[in-house]
Amino acid sequence: MHSETRPTMSTYIKSGRLSWSAIFLAFVLYISFSGCTCEARVHKGKGGGVVRTKGTSFVLDGSPFLFNGFNAFWMMNVASDPSERYKVTQVLQDAADAGLSVCRTWAFEDGTDGKALQISPGVYDERVFQGLDFVVAQARKYGLKLILSFVNNYKDFGGRPQYVEWARSSGVQLKSDDDFYTNPVVKGYYKNHVERVITRVNTITKIPYKDDNTIMAWELINEPRCQLDYSGRMVNAWVQEMATFVKSLDKHHLLEIGMEGFYGDTMPERKQINPGYQVGTDFISNNLIREIDFTTIHAYPDQWFSGQTENSQMAFMERWMSSHYDDSRNVLKKPLVIAEFGKSSKDSDYNINIRNSYMNAVYRNIYMEARSGGTVGGGLVWQLMADGMGSYGDGYEIILSESPSTDRLISQQSHAMITLSQSLRTGAQNVPVNQAREIESDQGTGDRPLVAPDPQHGHANHAHTRKGSRNAGP
């Protein structure tokens, strides 16, 4: 326990202790924007303008944009029931209070489930779509940017297997789920869904998704994998086709693939960085595609190297991040986001201090790389939830109200990234080296452990009971 609490950026915002110069600058930007008829179709939310890339950096309103963020895959699913929407609001408000500024979530659920967005090819449940509208509107209200994913690689929430099953049911002869990447009928289903989402007009804000700056980026597919071609070439052809299609509909927003970061045949020497196997993607060639704006990696050493020591797992994590930092900067020349990382309460030796220590090490690595002028824009922890959502739990969930030390750690990282952005914006020479030390030294240890999710609830088997497949490899 510490005698004083370090204020986060959200504390200053809430208390109104912003400088007059900052308020004046915001006013000038607003007036300039209002008077620009050529940008009349662009809709700024509380979080500012459109996020763009400049070389290996993200920029927002022309200034460096470094961020701390999170995943919350469940938001549309929960928001489809108006009586449950308060959970979405609570998490977004808590996230904003902690200084988090980017949220990654699903813009899909495919199949016959009672909360499916796409019931069958081209047939949508408007009630669920309005749930997604609510998520976008609430993110806008609290000043957060969204990364929206179009489809899952796994069967959870329908995903790639559901698309293939739909085609089979219509009489198309398919051999495996990997036909998702090559069959014209299946690709047509996918393109139709992409178009429906991008051209959607939000029923709450009345803003088309493709014009809403609340959305930072689109994601083609959560964690693509392909067993038919481990080289990455089959996935590469699909990414090229779909990335071109997305950009034909929306040149306003950024686009990323949704990759975990596995290396393929382009740089054979890099395959030794993989956790012992390939998954049919190629981090280099897939991300070299011109229409892809930034790169992503996911990292779960606790699953990929289950049974190994914390030190061994962290050593892998550092190699994994360092390798992708270098390749994003020097080969791909695009920004990088650590789009998923976390520590599971289902690990045999889990306690909250171990989770905080792991998160702190990742956060420190991200901060120091960004401070050195590196390509990383930020990290998205997996995952934030509200209280009373056991059926969506996967062991990685973080409930900020129940975990004050983790909340404090996240807030400190957010503050560090915001401060670093400001330093880069003003060209300050004294970039705050001590921010990374502050994150580590000010950890609390007084939380009670998280309650493990109820394994009897089906939704616990989302993409991250899919982590079971990571244990065994391909």
Number of helices: 15
Mean pLDDT, nearest integer?
A: 85
Q: How far from one another are the termini? A: 44 Å
Main pleated sheet: 8 strands, parallel
Q: Per DSSP, what share of the residues sits in E-state strands of 2 or more residues?
A: 5-15%
Overall structural class, as computed from helix and strand content, comes to: alpha/beta
Describe this structure in words.
- The protein has 474 residues and is of the alpha/beta class.
- Helices cover 40% and strands 12% of the residues.
- It is built from 15 helices and 13 strands.
- It has helices spanning 9-15, 20-34, 75-79, 85-97, 126-141, 159-169, 184-198, 233-249, 283-288, 301-304, 310-332, 352-371, 404-426, 434-441, 467-472; strands at residues 51-54, 57-60, 63-64, 67-71, 102-106, 118-120, 123-124, 145-149, 215-219, 254-256, 295-299, 336-341, 376-381.
- The strands form three sheets. An eight-stranded parallel beta sheet has the order 10-9-8-5-4-13-12-11. The chain has a three-stranded antiparallel beta sheet with strand order 1-2-3. A two-stranded antiparallel sheet has the order 6-7.
- Strand 2 (57-60) and strand 3 form a beta hairpin.
- Helix 11 runs parallel beside helix 12 and helix 13 packs antiparallel against helix 14 (434-441).
- The protein is globular and about 55 Å long.
- The protein starts with 8 loop residues before the first helix and ends with a helix.
